[in-house]
Amino acid sequence: MLGLEIIIFIIIFLFSVVLHELAHGYVAFSLGDDTAKMAGRLTLNPIKHLDLVGSIIVPGALILLSSLGMGGIIFGWAKPVPYNPYKLKDPKYGSAKVAIAGPLANFSLAVIFGLSLRFIPVIYTIPGMLMVFLYIVQINLILGLFNLIPIPPLDGSKILFTFIKSQKLKMVFARYGFMIFFLVIYSFLPLLSKLVVWLTSAIIGS
Q1: Helix (H, G, I), strand (E, B) or coil at 33
Q2: Per residue of the chain (206 residues), what is the pLDDT tens digit?
Q3: pTM for the complete prediction?
Q4: Which positions are annotated as active-site residues?
């Protein structure tokens, strides 16, 4: 990546993770939980959502490796929006609805900007716009798919535990969660990269 590309990538990444977290907060709020609002998290201000490790260190290191020709896929995460599941109007599926909202926000962005590339040819004539739109599509596909992995602390685990009430499974994650997280991420990244390439092509029609 060149310097300008890195700056554009970072801006798009921050915008995407902020919308991801906002989606969680607004769905929780719509279901009766004002925890995120009271914490000042229903805002577009990225500073309120950034996580030192997930939003800066991890993606920064991956961007650096990519710029040196050693990188693969770049991912990260933001500070989770707080919510109180006991305040949700839907106690059975409320947590799953809040969890799925973030990835759905990312997929929506990817589809909107991908279809724009597909059906608005003038975008290709504007210098730099193709790169920007492609980054928006790919970054949001990565964030959406990555967060659906069903291991804590990712959104997929909250969806999983809504439908599988296994205390034994929760205990396994509590004890070995850190090791399982990195093992699964390491194993899943090559598949994630292929999925992103395939979905990008399917959306933009290339």
Answers
A1: coil
A2: 567 887 888 889 889 989 999 999 999 999 999 999 998 889 888 888 888 777 778 777 877 777 766 656 676 777 888 999 999 999 899 999 999 999 999 999 999 999 999 999 999 999 899 999 999 999 999 999 989 988 888 899 889 888 887 778 778 777 777 787 778 777 777 788 889 999 999 999 97
A3: 0.87
A4: 21
For 30, residues 6+ apart whose C-beta sits below 8 A from its C-beta are: none
Q: 48: number of CA atoms within 13 Å, CB side? A: 18
Q: Which residues contact 124 (CB under 8 A, 6 or more apart)?
A: 117, 130
Cis peptide before 153 (omega within 30 of 0): yes
Q: Say how far apart CA 101 and CA 137 lie, in whole Å.
A: 17
* Token reading at 101: 């909202």
- From the list 142, 173, 178, the residue with the least C-alpha distance to 157 is 173
| Alpha-carbon gap, residue 171 to 44, rounded angstroms | 36
